[in-house]
């Protein structure tokens, strides 16, 4: 039972549930909501029927498969886009997965990567430094890297904007600030 709803955080890691937004929309039980690769099927819905930044005091989202299984638009107070947020995430290339005999993971690899990154951030909260930037144009073509925020857990609830970072192709996925692409 929630004794102090205004201090509750809900980390949403079940990627395919259609019911998690109902928790926010109908109850107002949480002040912080963490979403991993919010489903793309909801992008065509009226904002009142999908996740938006008005659904909790603070929402942060990790996008790893935008436009395929994941939502291609920023919907949180802080939206993190590892490797631009799009498929194919590093290590999710079909030829690489076939080589590892992981053929069954080809279609969902990038989508599932979001919760793997989040889980890694729980064990290492400083693992994923990210830079605030309006757009992502790939390594070396966008913003100079500055450590503006950390993706994942526990994220500072004052963090606002769109953030980008690079990750590795296998666990551990984290790249330190020194290994992020600059200029």
Automatic annotation (TrEMBL):
It is found in: Secreted. The keyword RNA-binding does not apply. GO terms for molecular function: lipase activity; serine hydrolase activity. Residues 44-173 form the Lipase domain. The keyword Secreted applies. GO terms for cellular component: extracellular space. It comes from the Eukaryota. Its main location: secreted. Keywords: Secreted. Belongs to the AB hydrolase superfamily. Lipase family. This is Lipase domain-containing protein. It comes from Tenebrio molitor (Yellow mealworm beetle). The lineage of its organism: Eukaryota, Metazoa, Ecdysozoa, Arthropoda, Hexapoda.
């Amino acid at each position: 039972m929630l004794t102090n709803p205004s201090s509750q955080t809900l980390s949403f890691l079940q990627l395919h549930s259609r019911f998690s937004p109902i928790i926010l929309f109908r109850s107002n039980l949480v002040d912080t909501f963490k979403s991993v690769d919010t489903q793309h099927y909801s992008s065509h819905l009226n904002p009142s029927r999908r996740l938006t930044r008005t659904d909790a005091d603070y929402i942060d989202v990790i996008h790893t498969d935008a436009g395929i299984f994941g939502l291609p638009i920023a919907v949180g107070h802080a939206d993190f886009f590892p490797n631009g947020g799009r498929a194919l995430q590093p290590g999710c290339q079909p030829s690489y997965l076939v080589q590892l005999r992981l053929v069954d993971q080809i279609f969902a690899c990038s989508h599932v990567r979001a919760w793997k990154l989040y889980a890694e951030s729980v064990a290492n909260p400083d693992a994923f430094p990210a830079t605030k930037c309006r757009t992502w144009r790939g390594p070396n073509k966008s913003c100079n890297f500055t450590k503006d925020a950390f993706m994942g857990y526990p994220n500072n609830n004052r963090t606002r904007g769109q953030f980008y970072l690079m990750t590795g192709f296998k666990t551990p996925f984290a790249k330190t600030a020194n290994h992020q692409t600059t200029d």
